[in-house]
Amino acid sequence: MWNRLFRKKNVDQIIKDAQSAEGAGLAKVLGVRDLISFGIAAIVGAGIFSTIGLASFNGGPAVSLLFVFVAFACVFTALAYAQFASTVPVSGSAYTYAYVAFGELFAWIIGWALVLEYAVSNMVIAISWSQYFVSMMSGFGVEIPKWLCMAPSYALEAHAKFLEVGVAGLTGGDKAALIAFQTAPRLGDIPIIFDLPAGLITFFVTWLVYIGIKESQRASNFMVIVKLGIILAVICGGVFYVKPENWTPFAPNGLQGVMGSVAAVFFAFIGFDSISTTAEECKNPQRDLPKAMIYCLLICTVLYVAITVVLTGMVNYKELNVKDPLAYVFEYVGFDHMAGIISVTSIIAITSALLVFQLAQPRIWMTMSRDGLLSKKFSKIHPKYKTPSYATIVTGLVVAVPSLFFKMDFFVDLTSVGTFFAFILVCAGVLYMDYSGLSEKSKFRVPYVNGKYIVGLSFIAGIVLLNVYGQEVIAAWRAMPMLEILKHKILLLIFWMTWFGLSIYSYKMNFSLLPVIGILINLYLMTELGASNWLIFILWLLGGLVIYFVYGYKNSTLNKNFERDAQAKL
């Protein structure tokens, strides 16, 4: 059984299976520009139009450097994705890559984690879209009832706060939530409150993805042009309102405040890997996928840094804890006309990100279904539209229903946990490809820099620097009981142990330096996420393992082939 859990798929067999499966009916229509457009659509979405405000509020102007740091981490991961995409040009993203490098069990775990990256992140985007939509309609004089445009927990929390401190102790957001609680229709004593716009936009985008990749491509290209236009307008127009004194202090809450925004900032970048899910709809995936990943990551990093510098220069960072920061800063400086334009166009911009993620998730399920790990219905291709029809409908339901009832901040950190996990395994997969010789089949390879001595020397340097400059941290650790260290610092301990282990193996096996850097940076960023998110993620993975052992292990294509071969020998 142990050997069966880690059985790997052969690259040539994966490509052959994809060509002979129902998925061979996918339309090959995407070129480099289309892929870059999809990448920009995914990366420049709710992050730049919503969560960038919260990140700036927590970290101040220094968050612009955090974007650079996170993008730096993503570059190493993007290179790893690009190598895998050029080697295994089929849909499935990190799931397929893990199947090749680590075997079936890891592939299932990654595929299950990718549900968090795509489906759960789309819940965030749908909720963010709803907030902008409600704001835009209010600007046109159309007031949507409060109970139809928010998660019920907001209203319940506002009512509880009202009972505790009265109306005088409520903020503007709390007052709106209290109105929702008081005006909502009731089912007995239970107020009926949900986010209708979030559900409706998910339904519309799911329909668009259902009817065809070409239609999705055209819609995405149009929305990306609009999106880039408004972002450039914000940057160019906002420069004239920048006050340098707003950049002081640069990091008001110190390094802790900056790193505390990791989840919000990293959420902005997770979309670049969605490009790899369209491999079977590319005209030349082995050439075009690597180019598109690197280009869109570089373009989006420049945009994020520029807009963060402008936003924190236009208003003080303390003013940016709002749901629509781009529109807010222009309202703040009295340029209401520009604020109105941003509110309208941001609806289109956020829709494009929703479209790409909603496109990616069904294709991962389709690939898992081909491998027998999910029901065959998930690999069914529509005869007319040439899309994974059943998987697309299920994705729509999985995203729409929670977005009707849950708060946005519940999902942001959870999305990042699953993504970090996938990124680490993809970087580690490149090390396996180099070791096993699979890299020889890659038309694009991560540039090789021998890490034999560098990884170990950097580990020693890290220990020295910690002892020289981290005495306060060390003293705090010494004062903590062992149970508290294990409870709150276990991820940091894992980070240092992993670095030590990679130092040893790099010396023994001449590991390539760039994938090692990708592993370490992503693992370090994971340590900045809250323990509660990790607990939910672990429970999520355990639930996924139950499904695998109940259904996937028995119905796996590799398992059936193994049993057939065993019977043939008898």
UniProtKB/TrEMBL annotation:
<feature type="transmembrane region" description="Helical">
    <location>
        <begin position="411"/>
        <end position="432"/>
    </location>
</feature>
<feature type="transmembrane region" description="Helical">
    <location>
        <begin position="453"/>
        <end position="470"/>
    </location>
</feature>
<dbReference type="GO" id="GO:0015171">
    <property type="term" value="F:amino acid transmembrane transporter activity"/>
</dbReference>
<feature type="transmembrane region" description="Helical">
    <location>
        <begin position="511"/>
        <end position="527"/>
    </location>
</feature>
<feature type="domain" description="Cationic amino acid transporter C-terminal">
    <location>
        <begin position="513"/>
        <end position="556"/>
    </location>
</feature>
<keyword id="KW-0813">Transport</keyword>
<feature type="transmembrane region" description="Helical">
    <location>
        <begin position="490"/>
        <end position="506"/>
    </location>
</feature>
<feature type="transmembrane region" description="Helical">
    <location>
        <begin position="222"/>
        <end position="242"/>
    </location>
</feature>
<keyword id="KW-1133">Transmembrane helix</keyword>
<keyword id="KW-0472">Membrane</keyword>
<protein>
    <submittedName>
        <fullName>Amino acid permease</fullName>
    </submittedName>
</protein>
<feature type="transmembrane region" description="Helical">
    <location>
        <begin position="35"/>
        <end position="57"/>
    </location>
</feature>
<dbReference type="InterPro" id="IPR002293">
    <property type="entry name" value="AA/rel_permease1"/>
</dbReference>
<feature type="transmembrane region" description="Helical">
    <location>
        <begin position="63"/>
        <end position="82"/>
    </location>
</feature>
<dbReference type="InterPro" id="IPR029485">
    <property type="entry name" value="CAT_C"/>
</dbReference>
<dbReference type="Pfam" id="PF13906">
    <property type="entry name" value="AA_permease_C"/>
</dbReference>
<dbReference type="Pfam" id="PF13520">
    <property type="entry name" value="AA_permease_2"/>
</dbReference>
<keyword id="KW-0812">Transmembrane</keyword>
<dbReference type="GO" id="GO:0016020">
    <property type="term" value="C:membrane"/>
</dbReference>
<feature type="transmembrane region" description="Helical">
    <location>
        <begin position="190"/>
        <end position="210"/>
    </location>
</feature>
<feature type="transmembrane region" description="Helical">
    <location>
        <begin position="387"/>
        <end position="405"/>
    </location>
</feature>
<feature type="transmembrane region" description="Helical">
    <location>
        <begin position="533"/>
        <end position="551"/>
    </location>
</feature>
<feature type="transmembrane region" description="Helical">
    <location>
        <begin position="254"/>
        <end position="272"/>
    </location>
</feature>
<feature type="transmembrane region" description="Helical">
    <location>
        <begin position="337"/>
        <end position="360"/>
    </location>
</feature>
<feature type="transmembrane region" description="Helical">
    <location>
        <begin position="292"/>
        <end position="317"/>
    </location>
</feature>
